[in-house]
Amino acid sequence: MLLVLLAGRPALASEFILEDEHQSVVGQVQIVHSRWEDTLLDIARRHGVGYEEIRRANPGVDAWVPGEGTEIVVPTRFVLPDVPRRGIVINLPEYRLYYFPTRKAGEPQRVITHPVSIGRMDWDTPIGLHRITEMRRNPSWRPPASVRAEAARDGRQLPAVVPPGPDNPLGSRALRLTLPSYLIHGTNRPEGVGMRVTHGCIRMYPEDVESLYELVSVGTDVRIINQPFKVGWNGEVMYLEAHPPLEEYAEEFAERSLTVLTEMVVRGTRELAAVVDWEGAEFIAGQARGVPAVMASLDRVSSPPADEEGPEGLDEDAEARLALGSTGSTGSTGGLLPAGAE
Q1: What are the pLDDT digits (tens) for 151-178?
Q2: pLDDT confidence of 17, banded at 50, 70, 90?
Q3: Fewest beta carbons within 10 Å, which of 138, 159, 313, 326?
Q4: Residue 246 pLDDT more than 50?
Q5: Of the CATH numbers 1.10.579.10, 2.40.440.10, 3.40.50.360, 2.30.40.10, which one belongs to the domain with range 83-226?
Q6: Domain boundaries, the chain
Q7: In the structure, what pLDDT confidence band is assigned to residue 13 with cuts at 50, 70 and 90?
Q8: Sequential DSSP letters for 142-178
Q9: pLDDT in tens, 209-218
C-alpha cells in the first residue's frame, strides 16, 4: 500500500507497534510531489529517510533539482532485520538504525527506526555486537590522531579538542560504544545523513539522536549487521527488500547473492505452503532499490491481499510502477514450496 501525500506535510512517525512476534514488515511506501525549491535531501529529512535511501528509490530523478511537481517515492516501508529484537540494530547496507525497546509485561513490542550515515570504505564501521558504555550531552570532540593526520594531508589543521557548539561534528549527543573510538552521534551537517561519509561512527539527524538518547542507557546492546537482502511476511504476503552490498563485499556477494536469497526464502517459508515468484524475486534483488516488493504469497503471486488495497484516493498507477516483483510472468516460476522444504 502506498500513502499519497503532499511534500510539505510532516513525516509519519518512525515508531511502529508490532502486532505479534511474527510481524516483520512495518510502515507504508509514500508518494509525494516535490516543490520547486526542494532537493531530494529536503524531502528525505522531512520524511525520516536518508540520502542513499531516497536516491535509490528514485532512479532518474535529479537529487538536487527534482523539479516542481515531480513524483517522489519515499521508502518508508521496512522489512525488519533478521536478528534478535533487542536494543539497537544497525544494518549497514540499508543505512538504517532500528531500536527495539525492552518489552513491558502486557504491552506489544515496539520498534523505532532512523536513517544513519556509516563509515567510508577506508574507515569502515565494525560489524558485531557492541554496547553503549558512555552517554554525553553537548560533547566535545577529540579527533583521533589518525583523523588529524588525514586532515593534515588535505591541508587542514584540526585542533586537539573541538568544544560543543555549531562547529562540532558530533552535534548535541554522543553515545560511546565498547569499541572506544566509535560513537553514535548527531551532526552539524545533517545533509550528509544517509551517506557513507564518516570515519566509522554512526551519524544521525540531530532530532533523531536527541530522541534516541532519551530512550537508551549505558549497557544497551548495539548490534551492527550486514544484510543487503531482507525478507518478511505481512499477513499472507512475503516482501523482499534489497539493497546494494557494501563496496568491500560486492564481489563476494555477487557470487553468492542468489544462494543467499534462496536460503532466506526457504527459511521464511519453512512452515508455510507459499507460492514464490522466483523470477520476480531475482528482478527485485537486481534492482536493489530498497523498496520492499511482493515476491510470494500464501495463495497468489505478486498481488497484495484485499485488505491492502489502500486508502481512498490511492494513486494506483504509482503503485503499479512500484510493483517491482511484476516481471510479466503470470504464475510462479519456482512452483509451490511445501512446508519444511529445504
Answers
A1: 777 777 777 777 888 889 899 999 999 9
A2: very high
A3: 313
A4: yes
A5: 2.40.440.10
A6: 83-226, 229-337
A7: low
A8: ---HHHHHHHHHTT----S-B-SSTT-TTTTEEEEES
A9: 999 999 999 9
> What CA–CA distances, in Å, run from 218 to 134, 170, 178, 199, 258?
6, 18, 10, 23, 39
Q: Side chain identity at 184, as an amino acid letter?
A: I
- pTM, two decimals, is 0.82
CA distance 315 to 72: 12
304-308 own/partner pairs: CB under 8 Å, 24+ apart: 304/1, 304/237, 305/235, 305/236, 305/237, 307/235, 308/1, 308/234, 308/235, 308/237
**Residue 299: predicted pLDDT:** 58
Q: Which of 47, 114, 201, 243 is catalytic?
A: 201
| Burial bucket for residue 66 (CB in 10 Å: 0-12, 13-18, 19+) | buried
Burial environment of residue 12 by CB neighbours within 10 A (0 to 12, 13 to 18, 19 or more)? middle
**Strands 229-234, 202-203: pairing kind:** unpaired
Concerning whether 243 is annotated as a catalytic residue, the answer is no
Q: List, for residues 187-201, the tens digit of each pLDDT value.
A: 999 999 999 888 789
201 catalytic per annotation: yes
